[in-house]
Write a structure and sequence with these properties.
Length: 124
Amino acid sequence: MSADQIAKGFTEFYYNAFDTNRAQLAPLYREMSMLTYEDKQFVGAQNIVNHLAGLPFTRIKHVITKCDAQPSHPTQGSILITVMGQLQFDDSPAPMPFTQTFHLYPEGPSNYFVYNDIFRLVLH
């Protein structure tokens, strides 16, 4: 599979799980995984999922406008993914733009985990 195909499958799963049941994201992270969410940093699968599950909204919808992917290491098979999109929170009238970057690291022949995850709202 190409980096673009892997990125498409990963982001579809990730944002569907995030929008419906954030606890489903736990298998995507490992104890060495890192998340920067706005200005807060978290290390380890449990810390990351606890933070994401505890975010202060009940309903959220991600609308992806662009997803770019590249191989990020010539021999290890890791993949860098950058996503841009819009977030609709609860009953908020206006969506908020966001960007998110994932570094997927291979774990076996066709499995990946999130090694790095950086999320930022795009506020002007």
